[in-house]
Amino acid sequence: MDDLNNESLFGIIPFCKIGVGLYIHIPFCKQACHYCDFHFSTSLKKKDEMVLAIANELKLRKSEFGNEIVETIYFGGGTPSVLQVADLRFLVETVYENYSVIENPEITIEANPDDLTEERIIEFSQTKINRLSIGIQSFFEDDLKLMNRAHNSEEAKKCLAIATNYFDNISLDLIYGIPGMSNDIWKKNIEIALSFGIPHISSYALTVEPKTALHKLIQTGKIEKPNDDIAQEHFSILVEQLEANDFIHYELSNFGKENYFSKNNSSYWLGKKYIGIGPSAHSYNGISRSWNVSNNSLYIKALQENQLPNEEEILTITDRYNEYIMTGLRTIWGVSLDKIEKDFGIIYTDYLMKQVQKFLNDDLVFIDENVLKPTKKGKFLTDGIASDLFYLNLE
Fold this sequence. Notes:
three-stranded antiparallel β-sheet; nine-stranded mixed β-sheet
């Protein structure tokens, strides 16, 4: 990573904030995956209006960064790859026209295999986009059908074979803990991913969110509920195989080769400022958080009237402490006890040390050079540990 030295990667969390990020939410998908609870629409009727509205929000919010410089631009969704390349180029140009951007920013687009024909990949490579994040999820048909993915196994492999000819910086997503997925199938998924020489892998346990199709299918007995013990086995296999292949486990769900960490995601975990553009997108500036309306029609209407359709909350010291615990504990940078005392005060430090003692005793976390980190045994349980360290009802 250009903006983080080796000491900060493996030891002390860097406190300086150099540069900022832009997240652009594209709220369209070809079809709904059974597990997804993100904001999107399967209708592209308002696509052109949406692109113009997003461009207008970019213009209206440029003063929020002041003299700061944009390091990362991330197109998420939804499925940004459903847009035409001309739309994406237009939005990138809008950023450059309204913001200060570093010379070589990381510009990522999330894409699905069914959109990544060779022609499309070549078109992407001819824009300023320099990083692909590809939603593979699995290389096996049964898993893809269970999740209602729009692509098949052959498309997944074919798009990677082509993409590696045009892009050096590629990440792919894999999902584990899928009902019916054996350890052997999971190992094969990882092996296939590694065979393409991909330098970054994001991997998540299948989770059942309320109001999703997956939740309903489980409730009606059509799909088996994911098993936490199996998911933990899959996680252990994932960590072992990727670390054996020189991947650095730099965040709970993210593994990267040296110099291939996601700069966009790392900026979130390191507390950097970012603006979220598009319906449902969130923004953070260190003292407050805001979020846009999760409704495409209302979002478009507001921007057509030059109004920002968002709400804002000022973060209390407790909010900021809890967020730092959650994000810090998930990363190799850990939770700096010095930072806790400096930024939040001795009350929070004393509380943290009291709450964490049981996890220290159970060998789920450890303290090294006054930085709290999960042990290998505790990594899979990080989110649960963090929630027990939250300070509630202090103010």
